Each structure stands twice: as C-alpha cells, then as structure tokens.
C-alpha cells in the first residue's frame, strides 16, 4: 500500500542577511527559500532569498508534474526574501514557466512583485538586463485571506504582523498540511488569531524564531519577529504536530541555535531547527521523516577508539552505552549505537585515546546530524558533529 508523499526542502533558513561566519555553517547562512513538492508533483517555491541560487544550481524542475510549471509564493519584499531572484538560473531559460504570487504593496502599487524584478535588475544595481530573463513569468496578486487550489493542493494566504506586511501560507496536500509563517511578531490580537487559524492542526509549522524570548520582550520588540517560545505556544494552541524553528538571527551561532532548540524541546515534543539542506517528508499519516545532508558533515577518517556515549533517544529516554568509534575527523565521527538518538540532539562522547603516556580519555560534546537505522543488525549508525 502506498501513501502520498510531500517533500519539503530547506534551501535557506537565515533571517535578515546571509552569513558566511563558520560559526553559523552547520545551520547555514543563506536567506529564506523553501521548496515543496506536492504528491502530484507540483513544485512550489516559498520565498526567494539567497537559498534560491542553490536551488537553481541543482535545478531538476517540477518532475512528475503534469506541466513544467513552478509556483513561487513570496511572503513580502524585504531583501532577505527577494535577493536570490536575479541569481536564479532557471529564470534565464526560455522553456521554463514560473507563476509568482504575492501582495500589492502600498509602496510599490500595482504589479508589486513585477516591479521588484525591474528594480533589482535596473542600472546600476545589476549588470544583466531584465530582457535576458527569458522564462515565462506570470504574476498574481493576493489580497490576504483567500484560498485557492493549485492542482491537488489547497493554498490559504493570511496576513502576519510585520513592518510593511507579510503573508503566511498554508498548504493542504493529500500527504498533509504545511504552514509557512515567517516574519511575524506576536502581540496583535487580531493577527494572532488569524495565524492560529492558519496553523490549525498543521502537520508541519515553520515559524519565525529569530529572537530569544528575552530579546523579544525588550530590545527587539517591534522589529517584526518571534521566538521559539511563541512558536511552542502557537503550536500547542493550534494542535500542530511538528514545529520548525526558522529565520535564525544572523548573530545566532550554531551553539546559540542549539540552545534555543534544546529549550523548545523541553516544552514541546516534536521540534526541529531549520537547517540548510534539511529535507522533511510527510506521508499522509502525520509522520515526518527528516534527513540532514551528508555533504555538509561528512569528513571522516577511519579509526578504532573505545568510547562511552550518553544522550537522549527519539522517545526522550536517557541512555549510556559503550561502543567503538570507527570513523573520526576533527569535525565529527560516525558512531555505531544500539540506541537511536534524537536527530539534532546533543551527545556526550568520551573516547579512550592511546598515547605515549598510556590511555587517556577525551570528552567531546557532539550534535546528531544523521541516523541510519540498520534494522537487520538492530543498531544505528549515528553521524555526530563535535561542537566544542
Ligand atoms: Zn525576513
Ligand atoms: Zn521581513
């Protein structure tokens, strides 16, 4: 028996401005861009931050779809949500067809998104003329509040609370419901209620988590963003199954995002922090499968170290076990465990390292980036990145 599958890929997860600081490398530095492939093959792109360039360079197009069209939904016109557009190679290919959706900005007037293209590629800001973009483009203005269908998916757009406005989107597909609500500050009762309705019963809620709850209450109030705590509250109230912390602050290092995620996990069962290259699959039964990309973390060297590992399993149990580390680099290790730790959780790894003065033990803090379960042998290969 087969179930419909929706595939959600994170190409950019950073808010405000891209980062190239190595301390932000694990979660990634590209600004917002998500790709959703619905079970019927329809390709949706959510926001056009710098992550869009990466998506363009690995372009396979809307395969499996009945037509070679892509639907691009833009939340608003702040730089971090549109700056990838001129660098999206598929826009320069004649046979491609893109349908854009966004709202009429009172600052831009009619055809706001079309004007964004023209402005971004105007002299002297960009070397290539707009006429070089030979893909077919159509633009649809959304009023905020409406629902419409694109093949088998129903899409709803709602206003969020953000300077100059922003739209949240809900996608109801045969495989489940995904809600994308970034660039939103809680505190406006009417818009908070609207967002709760938008998020109602979602399988996956991608929520703005740029600031800490303390920042949101003080220095960052009025800046148009939210926190992991507000995300957890919203997820609880709306009966969301899985929450994804998104739009990480450019000043948040990987360790800081780890901390926000840990706090959120203390209060809500299923939370993940969006990271570049992460892919979530929905199977129509509210089950979410998550993969983090191997290429960002696979730096290995064969080794044989005895090690003691402690951590938390996917169902929240603490464990401790002895094992052998077979694969080691300065960045991370591949460890075979009988337990299956939770993805994006912390592991303590104490290794015995033989040296001139006998065996010494080395204690490292790791972060789980990959789990491959070998059901036959009853163990898991766990990819760990060392974080200190
Ligand atoms: Zn933003
Ligand atoms: Zn914004």
What is the correct CATH architecture of the largest domain? 4-Layer Sandwich
Percent strand equals: 35-45%
Helix content: 10-25%
* CATH topology call of the largest domain: Metallo-beta-lactamase, Chain A
Q: How many E strands? A: 21
Biggest sheet: strands side by side, in what order?
6-5-4-3-2-1-14-15
Main β-sheet description = 8 strands, mixed
Shape: globular
Supply the number of structural domains: 2
- CATH hierarchy, class of the largest domain: Alpha Beta
What's the name of the CATH homologous superfamily of the largest domain? Ribonuclease Z/Hydroxyacylglutathione hydrolase-like
Query: Which ions and ligands are bound to the chains?
Result: zinc ion
Separation of termini?
Answer: 45 Å
Mean pLDDT comes to 91
Q: Low-confidence parts lasting 5 or more residues at pLDDT below 50?
A: none
Task: Please give the radius of gyration in angstroms.
Answer: 22 Å
Question: What distinguishing features does this structure have?
Answer:
388 residues, alpha+beta, Metallo-beta-lactamase, Chain A, Thrombin, subunit H, 2 domains, 8-stranded mixed beta sheet, 7-stranded mixed beta sheet, 7 helices, 21 strands, 37% strand, globular, binds zinc ion
């Amino acid at each position: 028996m087969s179930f419909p599958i929706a595939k959600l890929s994170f190409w950019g997860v950073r808010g405000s401005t891209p980062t190239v600081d190595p301390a932000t490398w694990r979660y990634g530095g590209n600004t917002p861009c998500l790709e959703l492939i619905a079970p019927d093959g329809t390709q949706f792109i959510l926001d056009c931050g710098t992550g869009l360039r990466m998506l363009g360079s690995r372009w396979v197009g809307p395969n499996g779809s009945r037509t070679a069209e892509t639907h691009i939904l833009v939340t608003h016109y702040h730089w971090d949500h549109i700056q990838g557009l001129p660098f999206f190679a598929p826009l320069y290919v004649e046979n491609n067809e893109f349908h854009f959706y966004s709202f009429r900005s009172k600052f831009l007037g009619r055809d706001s998104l079309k004007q964004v293209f023209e402005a971004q590629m105007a002299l002297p800001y960009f070397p290539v003329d707009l006429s070089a973009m030979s893909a077919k483009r159509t633009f649809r203005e959304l009023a905020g509040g409406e629902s419409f269908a694109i093949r088998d998916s129903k899409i709803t757009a709602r206003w969020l609370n953000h300077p100059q406005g922003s739209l949240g989107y809900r996608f109801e597909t045969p495989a489940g419901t995904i809600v994308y609500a970034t660039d939103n500050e809680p505190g406006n009762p009417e818009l908070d209620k609207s967002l709760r309705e938008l998020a109602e019963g979602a399988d996956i809620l991608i929520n703005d988590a740029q600031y800490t709850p303390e920042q949101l209450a003080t220095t960052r109030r009025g800046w148009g963003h939210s926190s992991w705590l507000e995300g957890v509250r919203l997820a609880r109230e709306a009966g969301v199954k899985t929450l994804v912390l998104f739009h990480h602050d450019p000043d948040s290092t990987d360790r800081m995002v780890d901390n926000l995620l840990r706090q959120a996990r203390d209060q809500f069962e299923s939370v993940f922090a969006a990271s570049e290259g992460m892919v979530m699959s929905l199977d129509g039964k509210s089950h979410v499968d998550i993969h983090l990309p191997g290429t960002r973390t696979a730096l290995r060297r064969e080794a044989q170290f005895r090690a003691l590992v402690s951590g938390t399993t996917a169902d929240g149990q603490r464990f401790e076990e002895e094992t052998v580390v077979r694969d080691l680099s300065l960045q991370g290790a591949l460890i075979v465990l009988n337990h299956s730790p939770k993805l994006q959780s912390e592991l303590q790894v104490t290794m015995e390292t033989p040296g001139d003065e006998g065996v010494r033990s080395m204690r490292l803090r790791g972060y789980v980036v990959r789990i491959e379960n070998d059901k036959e042998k009853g163990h898991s290969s766990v990819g760990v990145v060392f974080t200190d």
